[in-house]
Please model this.
Amino acid sequence: MVQSSVMKQSLVFDQLSCRLQVEGLPDVSIGQSGAALGIITGWSLQWVGRPLLEGRREHLQALMQVVLPYARHLISGVRRDFSVAGEPVDIGPHHEGGHRLLLRSSQPDTPPLEMHLDDAELADLVRVLDLLRLDPRVQLPLEIPEPEPLGPRELLERIPLHRRLTAPLGGAAALAVSAALVLLLPPPAVPPAPTPPAPAPQAAPEAPRP
Amino acid sequence: MAKDTSEAASPDRPSRPLPRRGLERLDLMLLCMEALDLNGGEAMVWMSEQLGYGALFPNRVELWKRRCHNPLRRTCRRGEVPVDETDALIRILCVMADRLYPMLRSLLSSSEPEAVASERWALFQGRLGELVQERMNPRRSGVQKLLDPTDGAAQRLQLVQGLSLCAGHGGFERIKASLMDAVA
Model:
């Protein structure tokens, strides 16, 4: 859906639980015109039953930089926190299940906003962000990391730490207990060494004659 | 029309065939689509024609033969599947997931009443179980785990969640990267 007033463009992407609205202008300095959107002047993300989120282009890009890689890792079963240093958005698994989206405001004295999303709401968010980045009218570079296959080390993260450590720690404990038991065993009785035969009495040396 | 990010955006990225583990997950995800849509098998063939893959999969047997590279299948085929064929299967999966997104979403939503959600999951589990028993080798531990009502729940949830996150054009690269994961 497009709403436009003279040069101003407004793109709206809807899903069941959220609506992303992006406003901007064509960048006429590089020859854009018409329905193109080359400069983002603002955006808003509206959730059902939640506060309205608004921000500038940097905030939108920060949101995409953490949410899309997080979704890519979830497909592989890896649930871990994602954040970009210095950026105002974090996302990660919520301890009660679902996902935790943390947004830090650039306004002073404004506490960070934490949102608890379920799997369906996260999927809706990913879809609106996909719709935005793949929309041909959006003609500005959005720096989003390309999805890459995960290595064995990253895949290990999907197994909880306690389960990963159970086997090696169990093995080490079994080895330690076995070693302790072996040390507690009494040493085998050493058979008495055969006594050497007593030497024959030697004759007393004769006294030297005067 | 959406921008195509699969080939145009990353022309220099080396394309290699999917590993066996990736083929296994791809086939299981397609099986989940069939469990969600009673006419999923037919829809897959129709979708293949609509997307212009008629030359790659001229009939349902050819489509089935590619899916039989899943090592969990009863009749498993050896060898690699060419990249263009796996890409076509992934794209069919993404478009089908997009089409069935409302169903995937309703399975994942926590705002649904508990009884309704349980009933939906039970229905999905039952259909998926039937398909798995029909087509997969029951002696494989992976199949036994997937069929287990409790042990397989996490895997079924992950499959559905993966499908919801790969739905649509934007999901192609995400799911492809995931299917190319190394073996842990």
Q: What stands out?
A: Chain B has a mean pLDDT of 90. The two ends of chain B are 38 Å apart (CA to CA). Chain B touches chain A at residues 1-3, 5, 9-10, 13, 101-102, 104-106, 108-111, 158, 161-162, 164-171, 173-178, 180-184 (CB under 8 Å). The CA atoms of residues 98 and 168 of chain B lie 5 Å apart.
